[in-house]
Design a protein that fits this description.
Beta-galactosidase, Chain A, domain 5
């Protein structure tokens, strides 16, 4: 379960903050902050493994055709996997209707979280009209 913990307008844009309470009983916290600007969206995931020594975290984005991959940075080491329409896999597909699948780009970032950890995903708008 997640809840909206903040919704503001700032000089940087619109800020939405979600508290993911799925793992709270296990001592893990996760807050996702989305900053929506005029030509980009930044998603900041802040996690704290709490009492756990470490957790493997998989951040997954599914992008429409021709969309640029996000810039993903993290406090620690991580692995970036990109797949598109893998024949014998669910990776790289999207479904808008039951029983139908379309090629998409699957972007997965995998990292190990120990203590407090932040992952940033930055999406640039490439389909905006040029400014005069």
């Amino acid at each position: 379960m997640a809840r909206v913990s903040r919704a503001d307008t700032t000089p940087d844009g619109i800020v939405l903050e979600l508290s993911n309470e799925t793992w709270t009983r296990r001592g893990v916290t996760h807050v996702r902050r989305c900053v929506i600007g005029t030509d980009e969206i930044e998603v900041i995931d802040e996690m704290d493994a709490g009492q756990h020594a470490s957790l493997d975290v998989h951040l997954h984005w599914l992008l429409p055709e021709d969309a640029p991959s996000p810039e993903i940075t993290s406090d620690g080491e991580g692995r970036l996997d990109i797949a598109r329409a893998e024949v014998d896999s669910v990776m790289g597909w999207r479904s808008l209707r039951y029983g139908e699948k379309q090629p998409a780009t699957s972007v997965t970032y995998v990292t190990r979280v120990t203590g407090h950890h932040t992952i940033r995903s930055r999406f640039l708008a490439t389909n905006l009209p040029t400014r005069l």
